[in-house]
Amino acid sequence: MSVEVAVPKGYTRVFSKPRALSDAGFTYCPGCHHGIITRLVAEAIDELGILERTVGIAPVGCAVFLDRFFNCDFVQAAHGRACAVATGIKRARPDLVVFTYQGDGDLAAIGTAETVHAANRGENITVIFVNNGIYGMTGGEMAPTTLPGQRTTTTPAGREPRLHGYPLKISEMLAQLDGPAYITRQAVFDHPHIVKAKRAILKAFRNQLDGKGFSLVEILSTCPTNWRMSPAEAGRWVAEEVTEVFPLGDLKDVG
Amino acid sequence: MEKGIVFAGFGGQGILLAGKVLARAGMNRGLEVTWLPSYGPEMRGGTANCTVVIADFPIGSPVVDCPDALVAMNAPSLDKFEERVAEGGIIVANSSLVKRPVKRGDVRAIPIPANDIAAELGNPRVINMVALGALVRALGVVSLEEIQRAMEEELHGKGRDKLIELNREALRRGFSEAEKYLS
Amino acid sequence: MSRVLMRGNEAIAEAAIRSGLKCYFCYPITPQGEMVEYMARELPKRGGVFLQAESEVAAINMVYGAAAAGVRTMTSSSSPGISLKQEGISYIAMARLPCVIVNMMRGGPGLGNIAPAQGDYFQATKGGGHGDYRLIVLAPSTVPEAAELVRLAFDLSDKYRVPAMLLADGMIGQMMEPVELPEPVDPDRIPPRPWAVTGARGRPKNVVSSFDLEPEGLREMNLVLQETYREIERNEVRWEEVETGDAELLLVAYGTVGRIAKTVVRLAREEGLPVGLFRPITLWPFPYEPLRMLAEKVGTVLTVELSAGQMWEDVRLAVEGRAETPFYGELGGVVPSPKRILEEVRKYVG
To answer: Does ipTM top 0.90?
Structure first.
């Protein structure tokens, strides 16, 4: 647990770490948007006052250490299985607030079936889907969401749709189903978008508290390391290129 | 005492139920029983058979090499199992459909026109109970009353209560039909 | 206590519910369909959760979640489905979660068929998925024993925090026998789960994980697992002996074949052949020691299995040359009759 430092006389506290976060430092690469997204989730948990009844599902991938960063209970899932694990927890103990935090390889490739069916059942869980278009931790391989022409270690000449398929628009797919309550795509490359993304995350958790069912927030993220870009270039790439293929906004909202 | 009984016929002839009723009657009597279906992916219309073992000691194998009794509801079933029946065993054959006599001379053959009797009773579905009644008479392990009670327990509360009286009568008719061949 | 005539699949389901099962996750597969249907009908009525998953993979991961949340949970399937579950079982084993997995084995490899077989012995007893782990493997040979071992599977799994598998086959699943069902478990008897993810209220957070990136840390986790396995090997070996006192030929068989072999022993004794039966009930831990002691006294240890000789390897490890160790196996879902096994027996005695 973090220690609250007393505010000296004459000073005003303008910033503090969310209670939901532990003192463990993030292990994300410098400039990666994961850090922002993880913090937004923690802020949402704080603001809703649900830390003591929340269980997170940590994925395989760059957020594999998520359980260290948070102060709530955590379960480590196998690659792709987070939505199934979350289903098991939520069905066993419906009073818990259960969220998954998954990357694009996890959620939209190896775990497509688990994701689609949890959404289709309207499973009352919150899914944070971090889409950076690449397999970050394993070394920058092509993800289901890699853009056409984008170079990765497994598409050295760039993703060629005729050979490798097209970017998988899983949020659009899920929005077609009757089960989900809320499907939205957000980004965090500048301050206005961070504020919007935070609002979406809050809503996705609130939906669970209200029993509305499956809520998924896709957040376009960066991978400066594997994209071989500076953090600033990576942010611009999201704003200018990625949003062309993956437009921002709500895809489904039952209100 | 250990008796192995094979029930065989077309899917839909109530083979599995007949075996189950016999197993239940044995259990109610305090005996050990096993009921083993041959199971296949075809739900209806295929061939079906089940093996019931009744014993007064714990049963080892539910698989029987040489059954003490065979209930053959159609010709292919008689063809398939006749040779395997134990010496001195019983063959109840549904003579409404099995047009040939039992070949074996070392068994007690009991031809029962189950379809005809069921038709007389007004419901073709009770052929299994007609044959079971005949088997019970020949086997002598459980009584007519015991098999009737087991049938009632089996049908009770499954939306088939109204069929109980008919099935009681079917068992009785089969039972008395077998008398002819046993006295 | 009255006896009920039940199919194996249904008796297992009922015994599980009476053992405090709270969450059951499944995917339909023959020959265990009656278990799925029974659970769908009964479990919700009795305060539990039934969920048909989109796949075997999802089902076992739902079990992982429910077990992490601290409830008694179970899944069931048959051979090809159990293969799909292996990833999840490996995670469950390392995360130290209790749960019960039922495998009603069928003919394989591949799609095989739905007839009884015992070809999943290696998979069940030697790990099955990746990594150094074991399951407690219980092998019933009758329907009443299946009901009894379901209760034991839950109890042992809770006690050691090791997943337990009930390993039977389509014959035990499909056949009916009179069963005395266990009394419903007293909820206070189910061990507390202070490690479960129930919300970090008034305690430090709980983390359920099978992961440590540091080799020293992962080694430590493995050593704790191995120590648990040694303890189980010391405490939980179970087997049955039939007419072993003066036997010169010892049959070794489990499950369906184990019960057929009992008839073989009776028939052999009627012919004056000195034949006994050793029936392992725990396949892991395998009863090496008691079998070794018997092997000292008999000339021949004949293993009979519905496989190409999977348990036979453990039998030979137990016997270690103290007796002849011939093998008779059937494949593809063929079940040998007592007479057929007796022919095999006669090759070595009398």
So the answer is: yes
